[in-house]
Amino acid sequence: MLRLGLSFSLAVALMTSAAFAEMPLGTAPTYTDKKLGLMPDGPLPNEAAILRRIWMPGLDEGFVPQGLTVVDDAVYVAAYKSVDNAGRGPCRLYRLNTASGQVTGVLDLPARCGHAGGAARGAPGHIWVADTRDIFEIQLDVPASAGIGKVVRHIRLTGQVKGSFAAGSGDALWLGTYETFGEPRLYRFPLAKLKSEINEQDADASVVVPQRAQGAAFDAKGQLWITRSSGSFGELVRLDQKTGAVLARHALPAGTEDIGFDSKGHLWTVSEAGSKRWLAWATFFPVVFQVDMSRLR
Questions:
Q1: Smallest Cα–Cα separation from 36: which of 274, 280, 294, 293?
Q2: How far is 31 from 171, CA to CA, in rounded Å?
Q3: Which residues fall within 8 angstroms of residue 6, CB to CB, at 6 or more apart?
Q4: b/e string for 144-169 if b means 16 or more Cβ within 10 A?
Q5: What is the pLDDT of residues 235-260, one digit of tens each?
C-alpha cells in the first residue's frame, strides 16, 4: 500500500511538473489564439530540455525580443517596437523575475537604438545593450528598485564591427555581427580600453562565428555558446574560441535570439517567433525560456 501511494504521488508530481512546464508565467498576448509550439501540432526541437517559460512582455504593443542577459538570476531582455513590419523602432529593456515571471523593471533606451540585438553583462552592477552601430552601458539600480537603472555611456561602432549580438566575459565585451554570407566575426574588447568610438582595430581578439548567429554567452567553464536562427530553424552551438570550429550542436525553436546563463548553469533565451512581426511563422513561441543543458540532444 505504501509503495502504491508513493508511485501515485510520483506520477502526480511528474504530471504537475509537465503541466507547469507547458504553462508560461506572465501575461499572454491578446492578438492571437495560437497555441505554443510548432504548427500544426508538431513538437518543438529539444522541448524536453525546456524548463520554465515566461511570456515575453510588450508583445501586444508590438515589441520584438532580441538581446538577453542574466544578472543575479534576473533576466534582462531588450526589444524593439516594430510598426508596419519595420526592422527598427523604439527600444526597451525589461527585467523579469524568473520565479514569478513578473516584470520588475522597464527602461526605454535612447532614440539612437533601433534594434537592440544583444545584451551582455558588464562590470559589476552594469550591463550592455548592443545595437547595430551603437552600444549603451547601463548602470543597474539595486535589485529591489522598481526601475532598471540608467544609461551612463554610449559608444559608436564603426568599420567591420556591428552590435548584432553581444557577450560579456568579466573583463571584456564581445560584439558579433549577424550575416547570411561570408565569415562573420565576434570581436573581443577589453572593458578597460573602451573609448567613445571603436572598430575592429581596437579588438584584442576575434573569432569566426557561423552565419545567422543571433546571440552569444560564456558558461561557467568559460565555454563560448552561440545561437543561430531564422523563421524556419533554431540552433545552439558551442565554438572553439580560437578556431571557430563547432564543438557541439543542438536544435532549438525557430526564432531563438540572445542567451545567458544563470547561477545553476541553466541557459536562458527568448524566441521572436510569434511576435506580431513574425506571427505568420510556423513556430509560435514568443517566450523567454530556461533550458537544462544536460537534457539537450
A1: 274
A2: 42
A3: none
A4: eeeebbebeeebebeeebbbbbbbbb
A5: 999 999 999 999 999 999 999 999 99
Contact partners, residue 93, CB within 8 Å, separation at least 6: 76, 77, 78, 79, 106, 107, 108, 109, 116, 119, 129, 138, 148
Summarize the confidence of residues 165-187 as an average pLDDT: 97
Query: What spatial distance separates the first Cα and last Cα of the chain, rounded to whole Å?
Result: 38
The C-alpha cell at 204 is 584584442
Cell numbers representing residue 156 in the block: 559608436
Average pLDDT over residues 161-186: 97
Q: Residue 1 pLDDT more than 70?
A: no
Rounded-to-integer distance, Cα 246 and Cα 232, Å: 21
Sign of CA dihedral 34, 38, 43, 49: negative
Pair 87, 105: CB distance under 8 Å: no
Q: Give 42-86 pLDDT, tens digit per residue.
A: 899 999 999 999 999 999 999 999 999 999 999 999 999 999 999
Mean pLDDT of the chain: 93
- For 20-34, how does the pLDDT look when each residue is reduced to its tens digit (9 = 90+)? 456 899 999 999 999
Handedness of CA 95, 289, 87, 275 (dihedral sign): negative
The listed CATH number (3.90.1640.10, 2.40.30.10, 1.20.1250.20, 2.40.128.630) that belongs to domain 34-295: 2.40.128.630
pTM summary value: 0.93
SS3 content of the chain, % helix, strand, coil (to 5): 10, 45, 45
CA atoms within 13 A on the CB side of 168: 25
Q: How does residue 216 score in pLDDT terms, banded at 50, 70 and 90? A: very high
Identify the CA nearest to 178 among candidates 189, 167, 162.
162
Q: Three cell numbers at 98?
A: 524568473
